[in-house]
Amino acid sequence: MRAAQQLVAEIRVEQRSEDELVTVVVDAVGAIIDVRIASWALSRANTTTLGSAITRTAKSAAARAREQANEILHGAAPQNVPMNLSDLVPGTPNFSDVLR
């Protein structure tokens, strides 16, 4: 289980927005690690559009990161014992509650 925890701690997901305005990097719990804005972004998009691109991209990256973390944790869990990221990282959502 400790190896799984280490793998989860190392998760980084990089996601580029569909319009290529921004690139966001998040960790396993979806916390933003880095935001990169294209050099041409403000000449082609207003601040509202840019803010929306950052938000959408960060949410998408966070969802992918949580999926990766849950795959690792479920693979490391003993059979028939439910496991969730919130079991190991306090303050993260319990996905079974979110999906209800």
Structure, briefly:
This protein is 50% helix and 17% strand.
What separation lies between the terminal Cα atoms?
A: 27 Å
Strand content: 15-25%
How does the overall form come out from the CA principal axes? elongated
Q: Rounded to an integer, what's the Rg over CA atoms?
A: 16 Å
Would you mind describing this structure in some detail?
The protein has helices at 2-9, 41-44, 47-76, 85-88, 95-98; strands at 12-16, 22-27, 32-37. With 100 residues, the chain is α+β, with helices and mostly antiparallel strands. A hairpin with a 4-residue loop joins strand 2 (22-27) and strand 3 (32-37). Helix 1 runs antiparallel to helix 3. The longest helix is centred in the middle third of the chain and has 30 residues, at 47-76. It starts with a helix and ends with a helix. 20% of the residues are buried. The model has no long low-confidence stretch (mean pLDDT 87).
